[in-house]
Amino acid sequence: MGVILEVKNLTKKFGGLTAVNDFSFEIDRGEFVGLIGPNGAGKTTLFNLISGFEKPSSGRIRFDGMNITNLKPFRIVNLGIARTFQLVRSFKYLNLLDNVSISCLSPRGKTASEDFKTVEYASSILTSVGLVDKARIPPIILPHGDLRKLQIGKALGTNPQLLLLDEPFSGLSFEEQLVITDLIRKLHDDGVTIFITGHVLRELMNLVPRVLAMHQGKLIADGPPQEVANNKIVLEAYLGRGEDFA
Ligand SMILES: Nc1ncnc2c1ncn2[C@@H]1O[C@H](COP(=O)(O)OP(=O)(O)OP(=O)(O)O)[C@@H](O)[C@H]1O
Ligand SMILES: [Mg+2]
Questions:
Q1: Residue ID of nearest Cα to ligand 1 atom 1
Q2: Ligand 1 atom nearest residue 15's Cα
Q3: Residues 221, 216, 180, 176, CA torsion sign
Q4: Of 206, 164, 201, residue with least CA distance to 7
Q5: 94-148 pLDDT, tens digit each
Q6: What are residue 196's phi and psi, to 5 degrees?
Q7: In terms of Cα–Cα distance, which of 188, 198, 182 is closest to 47?
Q8: DSSP state of 138
Q9: Which of 11, 56, 221, 233 could form a disulfide with 213 if both were Cys (CB 3.0 to 4.6 A apart)?
Q10: Residue 43 CA, ligand 2 centroid: distance in Å
């Protein structure tokens, strides 16, 4: 066990707006943690800070005992943090196998796949995310659920210890959500530490044993889903926005 991610007094200001405000928490190796909060709460910004896509205004981030504050995204990936994006991104004109192979060519991906050819390793990842039958198809003609699976496959190609999943259920049908849920659960069973945001709260709350709740950049609750769901401050944060909670 032991702490894998430590975020301390993290703050991100965009001009006069404080998107992440003095945010502190820890995640242990092997944990499965959710991050909830109404629209604009700062969830994606927090992920951007941890993965190096944004630089904090102040505060510190440690991963596996190392200070990773201000490191560039490629360095952070090579230490073992991968992330997916709320808006799906892929190399549109490369087929799925090539999309995943690119991640497998990263330094960590290469180390994990050294006993295999890159293409075989990428193909095994496509199998684990349920896309191997579509290996030769470009992503532009895939349904949204498959694009979400591809995102996860591309992240897995870098052999992450910690996986940040930003809204992996967004835009999916109920059936597609179930497929992605099973996939994420399996990754966690295989030993990947998972930190996941979601708007489909019922799905997320059923998935994780611990939830952080964020509102206006601040951490407002941290605990088991049922406890957080009944937290007065959390309920007010959602009701104040007129959003449904669970
Ligand atoms: N690059 C940026 N420049 C200026 N403001 C930004 C930037 N990125 C985010 N923001 C603002 O920071 C706040 C937090 O946004 P963020 O996207 O992190 O929220 P979120 O919790 O992920 O929301 P959602 O649930 O809609 O995905 C919002 O007010 C947003 O408009
Ligand atoms: Mg977001």
A1: 14
A2: 4
A3: positive
A4: 164
A5: 999 999 999 999 999 988 877 778 999 999 999 999 999 999 999 999 998 999 9
A6: -135, 135
A7: 198
A8: -
A9: 221
A10: 5
Q: Where in the chain is the domain with CATH 3.40.50.300?
A: 1-80+161-246
Task: Please give the distance, rounded to the nearest whole angstrom, from the Cα atom of residue 102 to the centre of ligand 1.
Answer: 29
Ligand 1 atom with minimal separation from the 42 CA: 18
- Ligand 1 pocket, mutate which of 10, 14, 165 (most atoms under 8 A from CB): 14
Choose which CATH entry (3.10.20.30, 3.30.390.50, 3.30.420.40, 3.40.50.300) describes domain 1-80+161-246: 3.40.50.300
d(C-alpha 170, C-alpha 207), whole Å = 15
Structure tokens given for 219: 């951490």
**49 alpha carbon, closest ligand:** 1
- pLDDT for 207-217, tens place per residue? 999 999 999 99
Instruction: Please indicate whether residue 40, judged by its CB atom, sits closer than 6 Å to ligand 1.
Output: yes
